[in-house]
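Figure 6 in text form: structure in, sequence out.
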């Protein structure tokens, strides 16, 4: 069993105190259908509610919260997150919902890349993980930038110029791009990817999936 936490953006919710009889509130996490969920909790300001199809339910990408049963309206000042316990990924292509909608073939390929990258990560095969991570970054940025660039180097530069990634994220992706060259016979003095760099890369991939 694995655990994942999603922070929910409540900025579009009503101002506090405007309603005492709010109808069911809907929150979306587009990647949620990808996960084989065993159980989940919605946590609002540290107070946890079990997703049990009563106060809180999950339907596809929607989290449906009924404050009339729970006695609490979620507003734009609340801190809200969904914690899921899941068995694994049902369909890896669904981890890329924005790409599935317009480029299903690319989403399928990205799903294959992610599945292989995850396997490498769990086995501690850091260089193999780096190679697959580079492929994931390249396809995600290529899609986001509307196919204006077609090499990872150019995509990284364009993504930073358009503020799609931060300077730190740019540096991380650039390192992964360079690690792909370690396999060549004339690159014996190049640094090898470390465990901490692989950890940072895995975190970045999962973050960009939600934000790009």
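Output sequence:
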């Amino acid at each position: 069993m694995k655990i994942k936490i999603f922070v929910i953006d409540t900025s579009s919710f009503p101002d506090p105190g405007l309603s005492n009889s709010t109808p069911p509130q809907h929150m979306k996490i587009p990647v949620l259908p990808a996960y084989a969920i065993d159980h989940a909790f919605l946590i609002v300001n540290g107070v946890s509610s079990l997703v049990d199809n009563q106060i809180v339910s999950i339907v596809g990408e929607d989290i449906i919260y009924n404050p009339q049963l729970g006695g609490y309206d979620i507003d734009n000042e609340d801190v809200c997150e969904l914690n899921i316990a899941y068995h694994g990924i049902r369909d890896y292509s669904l981890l890329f919902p924005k790409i599935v909608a317009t480029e299903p073939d690319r989403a399928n390929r990205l799903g294959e890349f992610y599945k292989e990258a995850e396997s490498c990560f769990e086995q501690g095969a850091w260089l193999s993980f780096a190679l697959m991570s580079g492929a994931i970054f390249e396809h995600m940025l290529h899609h986001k930038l509307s196919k204006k660039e077609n090499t990872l180097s150019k995509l990284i530069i364009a993504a930073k110029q358009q503020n799609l990634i931060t300077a730190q994220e740019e540096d991380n992706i650039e390192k992964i791009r360079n690690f792909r060259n370690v396999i060549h016979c004339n690159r014996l003095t190049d640094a090898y990817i470390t465990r901490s760099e692989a950890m940072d890369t895995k975190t970045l991939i999962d973050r960009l999936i939600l934000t790009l």
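Caption detail: The helical segments are 67-70, 97-100, 104-123, 126-144, 152-161, 167-179, 195-211.
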